[in-house]
Amino acid sequence: MLDKIRKIDPRYLFLLFFLGVFADAFLFHTHMKSPWQLLAAVAGALGTDVLFNYFRHKKWTFPQSGLVSSCGTFTLISSPIVWPYFLLGFLAIYSKHFITFSNKHIFNPVNFGACLVLFYCNDVVQNGGSTWSGRYFMIPYLLLVGTFLTLVAGRFIVSASYLAFFWLFDYFYLGQHLPANITSLAAPPFMLFIFFMISDPKTTPKVWWHQMLFAAAVVFIEGMFKLNRIPNGVLWALLITCALYAVIIPLAKEMAMKLMVPQGQGAR
Length: 268
Description:
Elements: H1 2-5, H2 10-28, H3 35-57, H4 64-76, E1 77-78, H5 83-98, E2 100-101, E3 104-105, H6 109-120, E4 126-127, H7 139-153, H8 156-172, H9 178-186, H10 188-197, H11 208-227, H12 233-260
Antiparallel strand pairs: 1-4, 2-3
Helix pairs in contact: 2-4, 2-7, 3-4, 3-5, 4-5, 4-6, 5-6, 6-12, 7-10, 8-11, 11-12
């Protein structure tokens, strides 16, 4: 049964997840965002993905991943103006195509773009969670679709582990109980992080216990940012953990293997 479920393309579920977010945003005006900002996100991510695919592979395609990144771009940040949405989408797709290691992109594209935009454009951009009004009737829908999505992508363990470690850290180090975190956990940008960013199949481990370690590393690094009052620590924590997982750890393993080979053995 689980094997049949995992044959479903998770990108369709991503779009179903975002459909609920968009319906709430435009029907109830909870996000204070405009259709022009959504179009800018689509142009920046989907449009850039189409062009980069053509220049690299000499053929026109409709990249579903670019459309999914557009939706993530629109949800993750908030700004009174339009161009930051285009910029984030462009940076996301640029990282996907050109910031790679062993022919794989290193970072979750939307997370990469969000870190840069929130850091360099913080005078006009803020984290999208601050504009979410907290309409709780949307939570069951987002949780249901998001949980099913992580099962299809084979990343349920990393999402569940992140939540568990997140609550443990906040309880033991910050003294916060679960009810104090409900509002932030209910925000679509936070759910976007759990069900879309930290569970990205392209940038996270496949093995279940590797997923637990990955989630623990994100929470630990995020906690260090929290203790030092550095904003958007969760996004930076994922960025750093992705770099460790995709580049630094494999290079360290390769160097260790070379050191373990006796001198002169490679010449035989």
